[in-house]
Amino acid sequence: MPFLLSTHMENTEAATTTRWTKALILVIGLLCSTLIIYNAYWGGWTALLLRSAFFSLIACAGFIVAIQRCKVPWLRFAHFVFALLALCAGPYLYVNYLDIVMGGAIAEPLDVQLFVITLLCTLILVKIYVGWTMLIMAVVALLYGLFGNLVPGSYGHSGYALSRLSSNLFLRTEGIYGLPMGVAAEYIFLFSLLGALLLKTGLGKVFVDIAQALTGRIQGGPGLTAVVASTMFSAINGSAVAGVVTTGTFTIPLMKRSGYRAKVAGAIEAAASSAGQIMPPVMGAAAFIMAEMTQLPYATIAAAALVPALMYVFALLVSVRLEAGKFNLPRLEKSDVPSLTLILRKRGYMLLPLVALIGFLVYGFTPAKSAVLSMCITLLLSALKKETRLTFATFFELIEETVRNVLPVVAAVAVAGIVIGVLTLTGLALKLSAMILWVGGDSLIAVLLLTMVASFVLGLGLPTSAAYLLLAILIAPALVKFGVPIIAAHMFIFYYGLLSAITPPVALAAYAGASIAGADPTETAIEAIRMGFVKVIAPFLFVFWPGLLLTESPLQIVLSIWMGFSVIFALSVVFAGWWGRALKTTERILLTLGAVIMALAQNTSATELFLLIGTVMIAAVLIKPTRHWRSIAET
Q1: Mean pLDDT calculated for residue range 310-327
Q2: If we measure between CA atoms, which residue out of 379, 384, 397 comes closest to residue 347?
Q3: CA–CA distance from 277 to each of 49, 281, 293, 400 (Å)?
Q4: Were both Cys, which of 2, 16, 488, 510 would link to 525 (CB 3.0–4.6 Å)?
Q5: Interior CA angle at 200 toward 197 and 202, to 5°?
Q6: Does the pLDDT at position 9 exceed 50?
């Protein structure tokens, strides 16, 4: 009896905790949404005040969410204390802003104390929501800033006092409240809110139904559906993991029922959800950041990203189709495939917010204002039918979901700001670029390989925008100094910074897919990188073939696209090892050689000739016997 009474009291306490924490998260979410939407449309807040207020609110929410997860009473109390401490910085900077500016942002003792408190909150948050990698990165950067005088050689410095770090990292827009936090406040939060709103109105289901209508009757239809639906969804969301856990709950079981192996089903979903990180118009907010970092128009960035992203999706579709043919998977019954015409007639209007978003961006509206206007259109359209109309409960849910979704990103960008601030203050950022150029020497290939490794390592586990920002400041200058066009240099580090989503040891998207599929995480990650191999080779292709970024003459663009899709198609067949039948080793070698010749043709004096030779070699294998064409058609 005492045990039952104790259990009842624990359950009652847990329910009470859940209610008040959910209420607090909702209030914080509403305050944050109001602040960000108001500033996006009307402006008026300076960068430091907006970013500090935003971070204080989200950090406070982060500790409250941690209270919900924690069952240890003293730890709950500690999280509550940290939630209150995290709220201090924003109001303090708001009240004392003029004094800080007039004083040259020189830290006073109270400023240093608040910096230490905010820094501690940041480190705890990043440990909770991102993991050890970023925590260690932040600690190492801070120690380097404080004790750089102990580092021997040219990579050391005189060392900076805590007060100097407080001035740079807390009172100015060069640290915690630097550009990364600005991106989170002005872009990521808004587009996460827009994505949650679109999902609540049923757009996710529309994506899946449209994808199924387009691909359902093809062999391997469920896998193709996963590719198309997850690409469309993650193109808005910008998060590979969020895409997996959202669309994957539907697509992965469907793929397994149709005969796909569990690890392959998880891998397809992970690779497809990763497409949104590189697919215009949003690219996980990286498109907008890249426009600022390169000083190029947004339209130029979006156009440059389009062809490589389409190559990635094309390779996925080919790989999935070949996988289905290799294992002779059945087609869906016609009755199980929805009608595209019916979907568009009944629910096609729900796509209008996306069309409007692209239109606003192309017209020249700021990304933030475009997102706000698209939200307004979504709310108006959702009111047309009862099943899509938002209730207060649904509205509160999407606010809470948005706050929870941005927590890892905000924690990561806070640390990214700290790292960038320290490396900029100490001059190490320039030294890293110089070191890459020194080690690489006069070899572009060597410099690219070093940049690839550095980008992959520094991007491990980071959200899209945080990874790009860190690499754009630390690594991209090396490529630009070597002579690589600025847009190709930034796209190069961007791709490799995102590779860890499907690549061990991190592979968060692949592991999420494996969890839903009930498959081995490592095997799922290996399958995901096999299908998403374009992320590995595309950066090298568009450095040597800048026409893939639509920045060259029309002829060069046509030749580049011909080369790119031919190479991707040939290698997809090589990795599958099947083309209406199992391919012989000699045939796979011939396909690989043809792809390599086409990829290297740009460095020759007879580009068109070598493209033709490579195309003929690939065609010799793929068009070889007529009976194999029949075999493919029949399957």
Answers
A1: 91
A2: 384
A3: 29, 10, 18, 23
A4: 510
A5: 115
A6: no
User: Of 230, 101, 114, 215, which Cα lies nearest the Cα of 163?
Assistant: 114
Dihedral Cα 523, 528, 531, 533, nearest 10 deg: -110
Give the separation between CA 578 and CA 405, rounded to whole angstroms: 40
Tell me if the bond preceding 505 is cis, omega within 30° of 0. Answer: yes
DSSP 101-148: HHTTTPPPHHHHHHHHHHHHHHHHHHHHHT-HHHHHHHHHHHHHHHHG
pLDDT tens, 343-363?
888 888 888 988 898 888 888
User: How much is the pLDDT for 603?
Assistant: 67
Place of tokens 């609110």: 57
d(CA 135, CA 501): 19
**What is the value of pTM for the model shown?**
0.85
Q: How many CB atoms lie within 10 A of CB 37?
A: 18
Lookup result for tokens 């927590």: 407
Give the torsion through C-alpha atoms of 190, 196, 202, 204, to 10 deg. 100
Would you tell me how many other CB atoms lie within 10 Å of the CB of residue 625?
10
Q: Please check whether residue 564 is in contact with residue 540, taking contact to mean a CB–CB distance below 8 angstroms.
A: no
Mean pLDDT over 473-477 rounds to 87
Question: Greater confidence, 245 or 316?
Answer: 316
Helix/strand/coil (H, E, C) string of 463-478? CHHHHHHHHHHHCHHH
User: pLDDT category, 428, cuts 50, 70, 90?
Assistant: confident
Q: Backbone phi, then psi, for 582, in 5-degree steps?
A: -70, 130
Looking at the chain, the number of H-run helices and the number of E-run strands are 32, 0
Tell me which DSSP letter residue 579 carries: S
Instruction: Tell me how far apart the alpha carbons of residues 364 and 373 are, in angstroms, rounded to a whole number.
Output: 13
Q: Report the Cα 297 to chain-centroid distance in Å.
A: 21
Alpha-carbon distance of 294 to 521, in angstroms, equals 37
Residue 295: Cβ within 10 Å count: 7
Question: Residues 29-43: pLDDT tens digits?
Answer: 999 999 999 998 888
- CA 414, CA 123: separation in Å to the nearest integer? 9
Give the pair of three-digit tokens for residue 447. 């410099």
Backbone conformation region of residue 591, classed left if phi is above 0, alpha if psi is from -120 to 50, else beta: alpha
Beta-bridge partners for 582 = 578
The two tokens of residue 455 are: 């980008």
